[in-house]
Design a protein that fits this description.
5-stranded parallel sheet; 10 strands
């Protein structure tokens, strides 16, 4: 190892750390980083400390109270964010950290944040209240399906309806279920079904997808239209783990489109069994009624004089008139 000469500069730890910090600031002055929040801690001072991580690495971050108070975005563990920050070194420990200037949701994290804000708003208005839910018809004569004609969910629902209740008439109100035009078309289909008054129940269905794919069913206009519908609405959007605001506004939420069909109509086998049960009860009730009436007649007959006794006096008087 080369020995230090008497003219070599000797750094103090703090001076070297400060030099590193200055170099980092010069090289990485206010950059944007994306990652997932973890280990969030809110100190009594108002500062927020957390790690920003991806699948490989993580960085310590600090969001000072003044910045946190000015931000409308609330940090939570597990959300994906984009940070505007500067790189610095925390001198007491020599740790690399990010000084956060601003934070916003990233990708699905942004959608999730919007979802939660709108859900809170509509819930406060009472749109999701249990007491405003409409009752499902027990024996619908006709069912409306709101979905895309190209959707696999339509085939699944029609198959389930034919299997369970082939006698129920089905009307399809076509609408896009994904894309910018989807919310308006879904609302129009809902209004069309109500104006025609040709069905007793509506199934709002779509297959699974990402949060972005299902975003049309989080549209505020559609949610309000569902809540104001004069027809009961069953929402069967996505898979069992998917939730949309349409689910909360609907009168009944089904975990899948097929389940929506099963919840909407009783099965033919169940109806047949119910009819058999009612026929048995009717037969039993009629038999018991006849038995009761027969017993009543028997009691009356026992209390009534025999025919011979009734005719004895008239016959005697008639005999006196005979010569």
């Amino acid at each position: 190892m080369k020995s230090l000469s008497s003219g070599s500069m000797v750094w103090s730890v703090s001076a070297l750390v400060q030099a590193f910090s200055d170099a980092l600031n010069a090289r990485f002055n206010s950059l944007t980083i994306r990652g997932e929040v973890s280990g969030l801690v809110r100190a009594s001072s108002g500062h927020q400390y957390f790690n920003l991580k991806d699948g490989v690495a993580q960085l310590r971050c600090v969001l000072f109270r003044q910045r946190a108070g000015a931000s409308a975005f609330a940090l939570r563990d597990g959300i994906s964010v984009r940070l505007r920050a500067t790189v610095a070194i925390y001198e007491p420990r020599g740790d690399l950290q990010l000084i956060v200037e601003s934070v916003q949701a990233d990708g699905e994290g942004a959608l999730l944040e919007a979802f939660l804000r709108l859900k809170e708003k509509l819930q406060a208005e009472g749109l999701f209240a249990v007491e405003r839910k409409r009752a499902m018809p027990s024996m619908p004569r006709a069912i409306g399906i709101i979905t895309s004609l190209q959707a696999a969910a339509l085939h699944d629902v029609l198959t389930a309806l034919r299997r369970r209740s082939p006698h129920v008439r089905v009307v399809v109100y076509a609408a896009s279920v994904q894309g910018a035009q989807a919310p308006g078309e879904l609302v129009a289909a809902l209004q069309r079904a109500q104006a025609r008054r040709e069905v007793d129940l509506l199934l709002l269905v779509r297959g699974g997808g990402s949060l972005d794919d299902l975003w049309a069913f989080n549209d505020e206009g559609l949610v309000r239209a569902i809540a104001a519908s004069i027809l009961p609405v069953v929402s069967g959007v996505g898979h069992e783990t998917d939730f949309t605001l349409a689910d909360f506004a609907a009168d009944l939420r089904a975990p899948t489109p097929t389940a929506a069909a099963e919840l909407g109509v009783p099965s033919q086998a169940a109806l047949s069994g119910a009819l058999d049960h009612l026929a048995h009860r009717l037969h039993t009730a009629a038999r018991r009624h006849l038995q009761r009436e027969q017993q009543r007649c028997d009691r009356l007959a026992l209390r009534w004089p025999q025919r011979a006794a009734l005719l004895a006096a008239p016959l005697s008087r008639l005999a006196q008139w005979q010569w």
